[in-house]
Design brief:
The structure holds 3 protein chains of 3 kinds. Chain A is an all-alpha fold. In chain B, helix 1 packs across helix 6, helix 2 packs parallel to helix 6 and helix 4 packs antiparallel against helix 6. Chain C has 2 domains: 215 residues, P-loop containing nucleotide triphosphate hydrolases (Rossmann fold), CATH 3.40.50.300; 58 residues, Alpha-Beta Plaits. Helices cover 33% and strands 26% of the residues of chain C. Classes of the chains: A mainly alpha, B alpha+beta, C alpha/beta. At the A-C interface, helix 1 and helix 4 of A face helix 2 of C.
Chain lengths: 236, 471, 305
C-alpha cells in the first residue's frame, strides 16, 4: 500500500514536468526517427533489422540517460528531497518507487518505439528486412541503462555529473576498443565485460545474448546499491 | 581594458574556488592518460623485423622465356597521386613473388621498382608517356620516352626470382579514412589505356593479383583493402584499357607509409577521451552560474555581458591550455619508452625529440585542442543554460556520435573526421599521411581550422543570445 | 484534534568541527504557537530537519507525538512542515506539486484545491512554480504543510518574503490553528516577527537553549518593576528621584528608568520637586531588546544579524 502510493506519487512527479514528457516522447520516437534517417542518408543501408535497431539504440539511450538523471537529479536541485522525505520518511520506499516508475516508463516507451520501427522497417528500406529483431531485449537494455544512470545520480547527487559519468561508463570501454589497436582476444574480453558492449551483444541475433544483458544488469544493480547507500546515509 | 582585466581576475577567482573545476581537470588528465597508456602498452609492431610490402593489382600478362622487351604508350587516369600504371615482369602471378616494374604516377613521375626493395624514380611531365622494360637474366632496365622515339634510361635494377610472366598492370592505392587512430581502407578503382603494346598479338591473359588476407588488425602494417574486380578491354591487338585497384611496393617506397608510423599522434590519442573533462569544465563554468542564479550577481557586478563571456572564455581557455600542455608533454614522454619497448623504434619508426618542430606542434596542439573544446563547451553551455542539457548535447556530439560512427562505417567516420569539431584532432599529426589519402584526410591546419570555426561560431551565438535574453 | 507534543531530547549534531546543535532538549506543547528563535547559525533549521528525520542526529532523539517521524506511515496527516520554499521544481504546476505530495500520503485529490484556496493561490494553481515570487512560493509551501490537516505544524521562517498583508494572514492562520488545539512551531531569526504571534518562546544560541518560557514571563523577567519616566527636565528629575532613594538610569534624551519606587511615589516626588513630566508608567521592554541582550554573546555570525 505504502509502495503503491509512492509509485503513484512518483509517476505524478514524472508526468507533470514538460522536460520529462519530452524525454518520454524522445524515448518513443528516436528509434524510428534514427532508422528513417539512417536508411535515408545511407546509399545501401543494411537490410539487417538488428543493425538498424542497434543504431537507434545509441540515439535512444541518450534520452534514457537524460531522463534518469533528470528524475533523480531534481531531488537534489531544487532540494525536492526534503519535501519528498517529509512525505515518506522511509527512503528505501522512495527509491524503490522511483526505480519502478523509471523502469516501467522506459520499458513501455521504448517497447512501443521498437515495435513501430520493426513494423515500418520494410517500408523504410523498400525491401524485405533480414534478421530477427530482439524487441524485448532492446527495451530491457534501455531500461537497464536508465537504472544504471539512476543509481549513479543517487550516488553523486548532481544530474550533469551523473550524465557525464554514465556516458563515460557506457562509451569509454567502447572507445578504447575502437581506438586502441589490441589483440582480438583482449577486445573480445572488454566487449564481454563492459556494460554497454555486453548489453548490446544481446540485441544481435547470436544466441546467448541474455548473458550480455545480465552483465549490464549487474552494473545497474551495483550502481543502484551504491546510490541507495548514499541516499540512505546522507542528510537530506 | 581595466574593466576587462578586472572581469578576468574575478572569473579566475570564481573558477579556482569551485570544486568541480579541479574534478573536471582531473577527469581530463586521467581519461587522456588512460587511453594513451592503453594504446602505448597494447599495440606492438614487428615492422622492424619483417619487411612489409603490398603486391596487389590487375595484371594483363603473357608468358616469356629468356631475355625480352615490353613496350607501350601509357595514358593513366588520375585516381590519386600514387596511382600506378605501367609494365611489369614477374616471377609468376602469385602475390609476393619477385618482380620488376616501370610505372607512371600522376604525382610522382616515372618509377622503376624491383621486389618491393629497390626503387628508382625520374621526374616527368604529367600525361601519357612511352614506357619500356628490357631484361637480361635477372637484371632489368627501365626506359621512358615522351614520343617513342627518344628514350631516357630510368635505371637498372636486379630481381631475385626467375622472370616468367610479362605484361601490363594497373594499381590504385586504397583510400584512407582517418578518425583519431583508426584508419579504414576502401579500394579505389584505377584505370589506364595502353597503346602500341609490343609484343602484340594473341596470348594475353588477365590475372587479378590478390594478397592473401593478412591476420594483422587494421591499423597495423601497410595499408590494404580487398580489391575491386579489375579487367581489360582490347581494341584491336595493340590497344587495351585495364582497370584495377591495389598497390605495389614496400613500406617507405612508392608512397606506401606504415599506418602506425605516427607514434607521436598515437601517444597523444588519449585527448579524444580526455575531452570529456574539458567539456565538463567548460560547460559547468557557465551553467553552474545559471543554476544557482550567480549569473545575476555576476551581471549586476559587471553589466557588460560580452565582457563577462570574453573573460570567462579566456580564463577557461588558459586554464585548460596550461594543464593540457603539461598533460601532453607528460603523455609524450611516458608513452615513448613504452612504444619503444613494443617494437616502435628506428629504423622504421623514428623517434623525434620533444623539441623538434612537428612534435612541439602536436604537443601544443593537443593542449590547444582541449582548450578549444572547453571554450566551445562554454559557449554551448551559455546558449543552453541547463547543465544537464548542455552535457547531453556536448557528449552526444563530441563523444557518442564520433565513436559510434568510427565503429560503424568508414564513410561516417570520414564525415566526423572532416566536418565536426573533432576534425581539430588533425593537429596531432607529425607524419604527413597525404600520399595515401590526399582526397580524404584533412591537413594538419585544415582540420584544426574546422574546430576553430566551430568554436568561433558557438561563441558568436552565445554573445548574441546573452545580450538578447534576461539573466 | 489529537494533542501531540514535539519533543527534543539531548539532540547533538556536528558538521566537521562545528557543533550546530549541542545537547538540545525542549518540549513544544499543543494549543500554543511556539516561537523557535535565534540568530542565523544558532541551529534552528538543523533541529527542525532532525525533527523530520531529514538529518540524522549524532545522538539524542526527536519525537513528535511520542514517536520518531520515521515511524509515521502517513506523516503528512499528522505533521505539516515547511522547511524550504525553494524546494519546488520550477517546471511543475502548483497543483501538480501538491498532488504528488498528497498521493504519497493517500490524501484525496480535492484537498489540493482546498489548501490552494486557504492560501490564496487558486488563480495560480495551473501556473508553473518557476514563475512564482518568493511570497507565492512561501504560500505554496504553507499549502503543502496544510495538505493532511495535521495536528502538528512546523514552519521554518514562514514570514520570509510575505508582504504585510500576507504576514497578517499567516499570523491569523497560526493563531487559529493553535486555538483548535494544534501544536504550532515556527522559527525565526527576528524576535520582532514573533512578538504578536507566539505564546511561548524557545530561544536558541549556538545550538543551546537560552530560554524556554512564555512571552509574558520573558518580558516580565527583564522588565522587572522598573518605572519609565518621560520628562523635559532630565537633570531635575534625576536629582529629585535619587534624592528620594531610587536607582535611576538614563535611557534617552527625555526618558529615565527608575528602580526602587512605585508609580505613585515617583509621580509624587516629581510633583513635589516641581519637575515637569509627561508620563510615568511601568517600563515595557520589547522582545527585541530582551533577545539582543540574551544572544549578544551567543551570536555566531554577528555581522549577519
Amino acid at each position: 500500500m505504502t509502495l503503491a502510493r509512492a509509485v503513484l506519487a512518483e509517476w505524478t512527479k514524472m508526468r507533470t514536468l514538460p522536460s520529462n514528457v519530452a524525454a518520454m516522447a524522445a524515448l518513443t520516437v528516436l528509434m524510428t526517427a534514427t532508422a528513417a534517417v539512417v536508411t535515408a542518408v545511407t546509399d545501401s543501408p543494411s537490410r539487417d533489422i538488428t543493425v538498424l535497431l542497434r543504431t537507434g539504440v545509441h540515439a535512444t539511450q541518450i534520452a534514457a540517460v537524460a531522463l534518469a538523471a533528470a528524475m533523480l537529479g531534481a531531488e537534489f536541485h531544487p532540494r525536492l528531497i526534503r519535501v519528498t522525505l517529509a512525505m515518506q520518511p522511509r527512503r528505501r520506499v522512495v527509491l524503490a518507487a522511483k526505480t519502478l516508475v523509471l523502469s516501467a516508463t522506459v520499458l513501455v516507451t521504448t517497447l512501443a518505439g521498437t515495435v513501430v520501427t520493426v513494423l515500418v522497417a520494410p517500408a523504410l528500406l523498400g525491401a524485405e528486412t533480414l534478421g530477427d529483431p530482439a524487441v524485448v531485449e532492446t527495451a530491457l537494455y534501455l531500461a537497464l541503462v536508465a537504472l544504471l544512470t539512476a543509481g549513479v545520480t543517487a550516488a553523486v547527487r548532481h544530474a550533469g555529473t551523473a550524465i557525464g559519468l554514465a556516458v563515460t561508463a557506457l562509451y569509454g570501454p567502447y572507445m578504447i576498443i575502437v581506438l586502441v589497436p589490441m589483440s582480438p582476444s583482449l577486445s573480445d574480453h572488454i566487449q564481454d565485460t563492459a556494460p554497454m558492449t555486453a548489453g548490446l551483444s544481446a540485441l544481435g541475433t547470436a544466441p546467448g545474448g541474455w548473458s550480455g544483458l545480465a552483465v549490464l544488469a549487474a552494473y545497474a544493480v551495483a550502481a543502484l546499491i551504491a546510490g541507495a547507500a548514499v541516499f540512505k546515509a546522507r542528510d537530506a | 581594458m581595466t574593466a576587462f582585466y578586472r572581469a578576468v581576475v574575478a572569473e579566475w577567482t570564481k573558477l579556482r574556488t569551485v570544486r568541480s573545476t579541479g574534478l573536471a581537470l582531473l577527469a581530463m588528465i586521467g581519461l587522456t592518460m588512460l587511453l594513451s597508456l592503453l594504446a602505448a602498452t597494447l599495440s606492438t609492431s614487428t615492422a622492424n623485423d619483417a619487411r612489409l610490402s603490398v603486391d596487389q593489382f590487375h595484371f594483363v600478362h603473357r608468358p616469356v622465356t629468356g631475355d625480352a622487351t615490353v613496350t607501350a604508350r601509357v595514358s593513366q587516369s588520375d585516381t590519386g597521386e600514387w596511382a600506378k600504371a605501367g609494365l611489369m615482369v614477374k616471377e609468376g602471378t602469385a602475390s609476393g613473388s619477385s618482380y620488376a616494374a616501370i610505372m607512371l604516377t600522376p604525382g610522382h613521375g616515372v618509377r622503376l621498382q624491383a621486389d618491393a626493395r629497390t626503387e628508382v624514380s625520374r621526374p616527368s611531365a604529367a600525361g601519357p608517356r612511352w614506357l619500356r622494360l628490357r631484361w637480361t637474366g635477372q637484371s632489368v632496365t627501365g626506359y621512358e620516352s615522351p614520343d617513342g622515339v627518344t628514350w631516357n634510361t630510368v635505371g637498372t635494377v636486379a630481381v631475385a626470382g626467375r622472370l616468367s610472366e610479362a605484361g601490363l598492370f594497373v594499381a590504385s592505392p586504397p583510400r584512407l579514412h582517418l578518425l583519431g587512430e583508426i584508419p579504414r581502407y576502401e579500394a579505389v578503382p584505377g584505370s589506364a589505356t595502353f597503346q602500341d603494346v609490343a609484343p602484340d598479338g594473341p596470348g594475353w591473359r588477365d590475372t587479378p593479383v590478390v594478397e592473401p588476407p593478412s591476420g594483422a588488425a587494421v591499423g597495423e602494417g601497410v595499408p590494404s583493402a580487398p580489391p575491386l574486380a579489375g579487367g581489360s578491354r582490347w581494341s584491336g591487338t595493340a590497344m587495351v584499357t585495364v582497370t584495377g585497384s591495389g598497390d605495389i611496393g614496400g613500406a617507405g617506397m612508392g608512397g606506401i607509409n606504415l599506418t602506425d608510423l605516427d607514434r607521436v599522434r598515437a601517444g597523444l590519442s588519449g585527448v579524444q577521451f580526455g575531452l570529456i573533462g574539458a567539456i565538463a569544465l567548460g560547460a559547468l563554468a557557465v551553467t553552474a552560474e545559471f543554476r544557482t542564479g550567480t549569473i545575476r550577481t555576476t551581471f549586476a557586478a559587471r553589466p557588460g555581458r560580452g565582457t563577462v563571456l570574453a573573460a570567462k572564455s579566456l580564463v577557461v581557455a588558459v586554464v585548460v591550455f596550461v594543464s593540457g600542455l603539461a598533460l601532453a608533454v607528460a603523455a609524450f614522454l611516458i608513452t615513448r619508452p613504452l612504444q619503444h619497448a613494443n617494437g616502435y623504434h628506428a629504423p622504421i619508426y623514428p623517434s623525434p625529440a620533444l623539441t623538434s618542430p612537428p612534435v612541439l606542434r602536436a604537443v601544443a596542439g593537443a593542449a590547444l585542442f582541449l582548450s578549444l573544446i572547453a571554450v566551445f563547451s562554454l559557449a554551448v553551455g551559455t546558449i543552453v543554460r541547463r547543465t544537464a542539457g548542455a552535457v547531453v548535447i556536448l557528449l552526444t556530439g563530441l563523444v557518442i556520435v564520433p565513436v559510434v560512427a568510427a565503429g560503424t562505417s568508414g564513410s561516417a567516420a570520414e564525415v566526423v573526421g572532416r566536418f565536426t569539431p573533432l576534425a581539430g584532432l588533425s593537429i596531432l599529426q607529425t607524419v604527413e599521411l597525404t600520399p595515401l589519402s590526399n582526397a580524404v584526410v584533412t591537413g594538419v591546419w585544415a582540420g584544426f581550422a574546422v574546430l576553430c570555426g566551430y568554436t568561433a561560431a558557438a561563441l558568436g551565438a552565445a554573445f548574441w543570445i546573452l545580450n538578447r535574453r534576461d539573466a | 484534534m489529537p494533542s501531540l507534543t514535539i519533543e527534543a531530547r539531548e539532540l547533538v549534531k556536528t558538521y566537521g568541527r562545528t557543533v550546530a546543535v549541542d545537547h538540545l532538549s525542549f518540549t513544544v506543547r499543543p494549543g500554543l504557537v511556539t516561537g523557535f528563535v535565534g540568530p542565523n547559525g544558532a541551529g534552528k533549521s538543523t533541529t527542525l530537519r532532525m525533527l523530520l528525520a531529514l538529518d540524522r542526529p549524532d545522538s539524542g532523539t526527536a519525537l513528535i507525538g511520542g514517536r520518531p517521524y520515521r515511524d509515521y506511515r502517513e506523516p503528512a496527516r499528522t505533521v505539516g512542515a515547511l522547511l524550504d520554499p525553494e524546494a519546488v521544481h520550477p517546471g511543475r504546476r502548483a497543483a501538480d506539486h501538491l498532488l504528488w505530495m498528497a498521493q504519497y500520503n493517500g490524501i484525496p485529490r480535492r484537498r489540493v484545491g482546498e489548501v490552494l484556496a486557504i492560501t490564496g493561490l487558486e488563480s495560480a494553481a495551473r501556473k508553473r512554480a518557476g514563475g512564482f515570487s518568493l511570497g507565492m512560493r512561501q504560500r505554496l509551501g504553507i499549502a503543502a504543510a496544510l495538505l493532511g490537516d495535521p495536528a502538528v505544524l512546523i514552519l521554518d521562517e514562514p514570514v520570509n518574503g510575505l508582504d504585510p498583508e500576507g504576514i497578517r494572514w499567516i499570523r491569523g492562520l497560526l493563531r487559529s490553528m493553535a486555538a483548535e488545539g494544534r501544536t504550532v512551531l515556527i522559527s525565526s531569526h527576528l524576535m520582532g516577527e514573533l512578538q504578536d504571534t507566539a505564546d511561548h518562546l524557545i530561544v536558541l544560541g549556538r545550538g543551546r537553549v537560552l530560554a524556554d518560557t512564555s512571552v509574558r514571563e520573558l518580558l516580565d523577567l527583564t522588565s522587572g518593576s522598573r518605572i519609565e519616566v518621560s520628562t523635559s527636565d532630565r537633570g531635575g528629575a534625576l536629582e529629585a528621584l535619587t534624592g528620594a532613594g531610587a536607582t535611576v538610569a538614563v535611557t534617552g534624551a527625555e526618558t529615565l528608568t527608575v528602580d526602587g519606587l512605585d508609580t505613585a511615589r515617583v509621580a509624587a516626588v516629581l510633583s513635589a520637586a516641581g519637575v515637569p513630566f509627561t508620563g510615568v508608567g511601568p517600563h515595557r521592554a520589547s522582545l527585541e531588546d530582551v533577545y539582543m541582550a540574551m544572544t549578544r554573546e551567543h551570536v555566531t555570525f554577528s555581522a549577519l544579524t
